Amino acid sequence: MARVWGWFVWELRGTLAFLLALALAGGVVLQGADVASATADPSPAPGAGSAGALTPGSPVVLPPGFEPGPDPDVPGVNAPSRPGAVAPQATEFYGMPAGCPGVADPRARLAAWVGPDALQRICSDAMALSVSYEAESAIRWAFGRLGTPYSQSAGQRDNQYFDCATLVGRSYRAAGARVRAANGATYDYYPYFMWTGSYTAAIRPISSIGGGHAGTNVRRITRAELAPGDIVIKFAGGDPIASAGNAGHAQLYLGNDWVIEAGGKQDYSNVDIGRMSFDPDTPNEWYFRYDTLGWPKWDDARMLPGGTTYKMKVGQPYQTVVGNLTVVDPVSDGHTRLFTCGAPMPLAASSLFSARRTSATLSTVALDGEGNLCVYLSSRAHLLWDQTWMGSTIAAHASQRRADTRPTGSLPAGGTLVVDTGAPNRTVLATLSVVDVQQPGHTRAFPCDADGDGQTDVPPLASVNNFAAGQRTANLAVVRADRLGRVCVYASAAANVLWDQVVETDVLVAHVPVRHFDSRQPAGSPLPNNAGHRLDPNDPSKVVRIHVGVPGATALGNLTVLDAINPGHTKVYPCAEGPGSVATSASNFGSGQTVPNAVLARADVNGDICVRATDWAHIVWDQSVETSSLPVYSDPAPRKIDSRAILGRPRAV
Asked: N or C terminus of the chain with fewer C-beta within 10 Å?
């Protein structure tokens, strides 16, 4: 409960506060089965003598027959029967806001300080990622109260003002939340949870003004499980019941350690956003989640809707960026299109994905005049953008579809497609997509006639795509076109092949891909290997070390993960700097999957890069570029888009 220094009062209204104080003075005990700390509170409860120390073991007991009714001006509500269905009377005294606030009440100082754009993003992202439809509405209602004054007066906090617990409780009541208590009855969320002590395990008798959380649909969770809409209860002693007066605090969690609260440790107490932080006066925390009694909010509902273009500021105006575009758990098969905001959306895809399969694709795009990129997402999914480079040395353009075999028929097994890149003797970057495959296989991309003898060259050993039957794949190909501007694509199995080109450059001088490592090769093979065994993620000696040859150089290669035992991810990093030097993953893989992805990585002072997988898997590394021409890019926060986190979700346009 937020404190106003020097003002120590009970948070229970009128008679309840007095009677509960008497109960505490007489030696109240707690139900111990759900108490996080098994130690008794060494200090007496406020207003009680030494006999008021709390002892785990049994419920808090109120005097027989004591059950004051709810305030006559607070209507009861029913839980929603469908998403967003909140009874009109649940809008309380102010009404349910139509959306997130555009401008903060100046009395909410932190909300006003972060500015309207960040405030709207915190609010809308928290609503989108909330754990239930009631939590979503509770967050919206609470944001509509920003700047409202704080009061612990029973008459004021139930009407136009709030203390910390009434903000949380009334927000959930306004959202239509109902509590199914241990006695089988259902009650309005507020006043069942009317103060921080209400979140103790059990209070007897159970009534509309409380009964504890044990056996209800408001359950304790861990801090690691916190999601937007969950409740944080801070208190001193061994249990929230000790938090009478100013010895406790309640917050509505928003994500990424943001909360909305009434009061706090500031020199003001109006409703405001805030940050979770340790408070020595309330050092203990319990966390709760409201489980709906109505329509559940499925995980898919928290994803970005498909068929939509999204925008996010990720860098400086008019720069080219390179990064990993990851589509997480898509609901259906689909694609993405990455492009400069304000320009026409291209027909060409940046990545292809299959339903319920997380995939990452290295991509490049030019930013607009505000540093934004735009991405079209065809299916409902989560999106991530992990930026690996930004600069003007390479100039990306709108993706151009240079080849598509679908109108004329698939490329036969063992066949080669000739792509006219329009860039003789230049390195091109393009998304190579494979669809409509019936058998497992792979693709290889190479200059058709690198030696200039007029004959099509033999495909190199290194692959670009690896695919299974029925799987759609896309990967960034980095190839130097021959003197006629041609690139050849070989397919080992029949498939349709698409070539979507985004860069032609002389800065990156690509060579025919060279396989530097293949863990599947037997011991004694001239190619570095792991004697045919999967790499052990727990053995430091099993880190794949690739010698780029040039200290501090940038390497472009294709990282393929095969036959993993369990889902996981890979990291590629400068060996001497350790895996902690890279904050994001290079690829994501599932059990038994074959997953290729192009990687842009910086070598260490010895000219080495390291590759590590988080689970048992085979690793293959095929390298096509080593260069010192790209300026070093360093970013302490490379993850620019993460739709799973507040302030990380891109805006729909």
From this structure: C
